[in-house]
Amino acid sequence: MNKTKMKISILSMSLLTMSFLVITNAFGAMTKSFPDVPVAKIQMIGTVPSLGTLIATVVVGTLAVKYSKKLLSLIGLGIATLGGLLPLLVHSSIDVLIGCAFILGFGLGFVNTLIPMLISIFFEGEERNAMMGKNTAMNSLGSILMMLGGGLLGAKNWVNSYWVFLLGILVFLLVLFALPNDKVDRSEKNASGNIFGILKHLNGYVWLIGLVTLLMGILYTIYPTNLSIIIGQKELGSTSITGIINAVGTAGGFIAGFSLKYLNKVFKDKIIAGGYITLGVTFLLGRIANNLILIGIGGVLSGFAMSMIMSTIPFYMSVLSHKYELAVSMMLFQFMNSIGGFISPVLLNLLHIKVGESSFTFGCVSCFVIGIICILTNLGKKVLSNSVKEG
């Protein structure tokens, strides 16, 4: 088994996980091509993929306990690539483009759920943890490359932005030829016949980490969705400045992902708490800063926080799960993350928290409280002490 080829094939899939954002660069040009279509409907091209991903997460969790993860990865990559490239042929209707965006999101739901499963199957211990970090780093790199590539390709005609999804074909071939085929043994099939039965018997700490994931999905979503409003309220710049700050945050996530080994040495079993507190500092800087330098520093810290938490959570879930439970645990991780991002703005609205500075204040206080609770309860230490020892 060539581990280098295996790592390359798995991490290549990570490049695509945020690819649904590519077409958001073209929304301005699309409003001119479809002047009679409400802007809100055009924006659905950027939000509908999340619905597809959410549905796919449950589908994958059901299938992955019975079928090869490599096979399911190839199916997901094929679906995502189809959804990404189809608009090159059919792009005269917003409804069609929304449908393609849903297909793209459904395929990405396969990929996003299967990556931590594959890492958990093929890697153990510290190597597994390091791969989780590299996964988040490649997510960030992929976001930068896909957004930049889509922007350059679509400079003259927004439709050409979709050519960037040709990358999906390359990733498909890498997985096909470089990723070894995992086998679901007979005992695993028997044990996993009922997905709801597995959910019922998961380690209680898996559900607790699932709650931590849900909270992260809710709180982190506050940052990018309110950043431009904060910058506008402080009269520090335009939309382009927001894009730069977001890019800086993405770069921070890339650096943190590849530095996870060293971050673990610093924070040890307090890394999730450290991530929440780091995100709290991000909100604090955004709330009190009156210059772009501090907000930029907050952007870097947001990337570090995301990487620290979203690399550690699937690792914790993997060590808490038996082999036959991995697929369901990773499904739970992706589902909680997706639903958290989906309900975040709805929750803040129900709590009558205004956008902008008020949302940042809520995010800051919430993150500090959760971080302190994680420290006081020794969450990380308890998770590691309850890890599963396979015979």
3D structure, described in words:
It is found in: Cell membrane. InterPro entries: MFS, MFS_dom, MFS_trans_sf. Keywords: Cell membrane, Membrane, Signal, Transmembrane, Transmembrane helix, Transport. This protein has 391 residues and is mostly helical. The chain folds into two domains: 3-184, MFS general substrate transporter like domains (Growth Hormone, Chain: A, Up-down Bundle); 200-385, Growth Hormone, Chain: A, CATH 1.20.1250.20. Helices cover 77% and strands 0% of the residues. It has helices at 3-14, 27-33, 39-63, 69-85, 94-122, 125-153, 167-178, 186-191, 195-201, 204-233, 239-258, 260-267, 271-288, 292-319, 326-350, 357-376, 379-385.
In short:
This is MFS transporter. Belongs to the major facilitator superfamily. With 391 residues, this protein is mainly α.
What Rg do the Cα atoms give?
20 Å
What is the helical fraction, as a range of percent? over 70%
Beta-strand content estimate: under 5%
Listing every helix as H and every strand as E from the N terminus to the C terminus, the arrangement reads HHHHHHHHHHHHHHHHH
In the CATH scheme, what's the topology name of the largest domain? Growth Hormone, Chain: A
Largest sheet: none
Question: How much is the average pLDDT?
Answer: 87
State the fourth-level CATH superfamily of the largest domain: MFS general substrate transporter like domains
Shape: globular
Class inferred from helices and paired strands: mainly alpha
CATH class of the largest domain: Mainly Alpha
Chain oligomer state: single chain
- Give the total of domains: 2
Note the gap between the termini. Answer: 22 Å
CATH architecture of the largest domain: Up-down Bundle
| Count of alpha and pi helical runs | 17
Number of strands: 0
Low-confidence stretches: none
